[in-house]
Amino acid sequence: MVDQKIVLALKFLLLVLFFESTFEQQQQERLSSPIERAALLELRSSLGLRSKDWPMKADNCSVWNGIKCENGSVSEINISGFRRTRLGSQNPQFRVDSLVNLTRLKSFNASGFYLPGSIPDWFGQRLVSLQVLDLSSCLISNAIPGSLGNLTSLTGLYLYHNNFTGMIPSNLGLLAGLSVLDLSANMFTGSIPVSFGSLQNLTRLDISMNLLSGPIPLAIGMLSKLQYLNLSRNDLSSSIPPQLGDLSNLADFDCLNSCVGIKGLMGQGVKPTVISWSISNAIPGSLGNLTSLTGLYLYHNNFTGMIPSNLGLLAGLSVLDLSANMFTGSIPVSFGSLQNLTRLDISMNLLSGPIPLAIGMLSKLQYLNLSRNDLSSSIPPQLGDLSNLADFDCLNSCGGIMGLMGQGVKPTVISRSIRWSTTPVIMKSRKPLSNT
Ligand SMILES: *[C@@H]1O[C@H](CO)[C@@H](O)[C@H](O)[C@H]1NC(C)=O
Ligand SMILES: *[C@@H]1O[C@H](CO)[C@@H](O)[C@H](O)[C@H]1NC(C)=O
Ligand SMILES: *[C@@H]1O[C@H](CO)[C@@H](O)[C@H](O)[C@H]1NC(C)=O
Ligand SMILES: *[C@@H]1O[C@H](CO)[C@@H](O)[C@H](O)[C@H]1NC(C)=O
Ligand SMILES: *[C@@H]1O[C@H](CO)[C@@H](O)[C@H](O)[C@H]1NC(C)=O
Ligand SMILES: *[C@@H]1O[C@H](CO)[C@@H](O)[C@H](O)[C@H]1NC(C)=O
Ligand SMILES: *[C@@H]1O[C@H](CO)[C@@H](O)[C@H](O)[C@H]1NC(C)=O
Ligand SMILES: *[C@@H]1O[C@H](CO)[C@@H](O)[C@H](O)[C@H]1NC(C)=O
Ligand SMILES: *[C@@H]1O[C@H](CO)[C@@H](O)[C@H](O)[C@H]1NC(C)=O
Ligand SMILES: *[C@@H]1O[C@H](CO)[C@@H](O)[C@H](O)[C@H]1NC(C)=O
Ligand SMILES: *[C@@H]1O[C@H](CO)[C@@H](O)[C@H](O)[C@H]1NC(C)=O
Ligand SMILES: *[C@@H]1O[C@H](CO)[C@@H](O)[C@H](O)[C@H]1NC(C)=O
């Protein structure tokens, strides 16, 4: 009986394997057009690709690395990660002219493959079937030709980490089907094209690490599908327009070292989960409206004034980092409401007054840094209830060590300025001390 079952199972397995292999056979596409075949060979020679990757004799697509065909035509080329022949690497150039004969090409990915030179003007006029163009990290320089605005089938345009200069052509605003536009880490100058407001299908826009200046177009606030917006490391002059507050899908927003004010982001709609940007002056209390925030990073800026007690409304916060600013006043008692907080860093400010007892109620807290402030009080015994606390730093900040003596507390790193010499004994013995 058992043997029969095994034989049956084996037969079934063989059947499955057989069907799978015939399925694969069917997937193997033949390149029907001699013109396209000639174009691939021409591309192989102009880029100096190895015959190992694209063997001369093959007439079907599956044996050429990085090539996919549909209905006998080349539909995808991925030369990302390819190496050139020795000859080909002697004088690498942006020579891809024969692509024009691949009239059904949907995707061209050369990420990381050096193509020194400029994007030729004909690119935008001839490669109109392209849906995805990835030329990231290709050592390309000079301006982007405005003709790229003709590639209206594009859904993804990745040009990051090159040496592009000049203005971002406003024609890119014609690429209405774009879902991802990544122009980061180049040397673009001028301002963000207002035409970007037309890219209604955009989910990711990254123009960080350029030399862009001028205002953030209000129209960006109309890109309702935007989930990721990175404007950091530019020289944008304006403050964040309130319109950005309407971006209800925005999860990541980064304007570090780029945006001047934070007038925006106050609307009802905005729900970024991570915000970091560089600003000065006081934080508006309306930040407390961003109740979807799980991380708020405002460290190392020039914030002044009090920490708004409204931040205590951000009940979903897991990380709150306000360190290295010039906040004055005391630690808001409302922080006691941040029940999901695992990291709280308010070190290196000018905070004074007592440590709120309520902080001892943040039961998930693992990291608490209060160091380098002017906190007047001693550490409240309530902190001893923080059973998850692993790191606690109150160097040059806390007055006493009355707290941290409870049974529960298990910090692995403690540093603080103390006045009594008995601490090491306390820590070693780990016995609850008397409450005197
Ligand atoms: C594709 O080429 C491989 C290797 O040359 C060969 O084994 C296979 O039969 C070919 N497939 C088709 C559909 O021509
Ligand atoms: C391939 O050919 C089939 C049948 O002619 C057609 O339905 C399909 O749309 C074609 N696919 C492409 C990508 O041209
Ligand atoms: C592109 O090719 C590289 C190297 O051959 C490979 O590692 C990568 O997975 C390919 N990428 C895609 C999107 O097919
Ligand atoms: C495209 O194909 C035609 C016909 O084979 C050929 O004459 C032409 O030179 C090719 N164009 C490029 C840019 O390779
Ligand atoms: C291009 O290929 C690289 C390396 O394989 C890959 O990481 C990247 O996601 C690809 N680009 C696109 C748009 O798929
Ligand atoms: C930009 O150009 C410089 C010199 O021409 C080169 O050293 C650098 O690697 C290039 N950067 C990128 C990202 O291509
Ligand atoms: C492509 O774009 C250029 C410049 O934007 C324009 O002059 C030209 O008419 C366009 N060509 C096509 C075929 O759409
Ligand atoms: C935007 O995306 C939707 C859904 O994917 C699609 O139906 C629509 O055609 C796209 N718009 C453009 C202009 O491509
Ligand atoms: C924004 O871009 C910068 C530089 O390209 C990068 O370091 C940072 O991690 C990005 N921000 C987010 C939230 O991804
Ligand atoms: C945002 O916060 C401010 C100040 O706390 C408040 O006056 C305003 O009503 C809030 N707006 C919304 C839309 O909740
Ligand atoms: C804070 O302001 C001072 C003086 O205005 C300036 O030198 C410093 O770079 C600023 N720091 C940050 C992190 O912006
Ligand atoms: C706190 O975290 C828990 C678990 O991740 C989650 O279910 C809950 O919704 C969070 N609370 C708030 C107010 O976001």
UniProtKB/TrEMBL annotation:
| One Gene Ontology CC term in the entry | plasma membrane
Q: What region holds the Disease resistance R13L4/SHOC-2-like LRR domain? A: 129-302
Signal sequence segment = 1-24
Predominant place of localization: membrane
Protein name (Swiss-Prot/TrEMBL): Disease resistance R13L4/SHOC-2-like LRR domain-containing protein
**Domain of life of the organism in this record?**
Eukaryota
Asked whether the keyword Repeat is assigned, the reply is yes
Extract the PANTHER family matched here. Answer: OS06G0587000 PROTEIN, POLYGALACTURONASE INHIBITOR 1
Subcellular location, in the record's words?
A: Cell membrane
Q: Which InterPro entries does its entry note?
A: Leu-rich_rpt, Leu-rich_rpt_typical-subtyp, LRR_dom_sf, LRR_R13L4/SHOC2-like, PGIP
Q: Which Pfam families does the record cross-reference, listed alphabetically?
A: LRR_14 (PF23598), LRR_8 (PF13855)
The entry's keywords: Cell membrane, Glycoprotein, Leucine-rich repeat, Membrane, Repeat, Signal
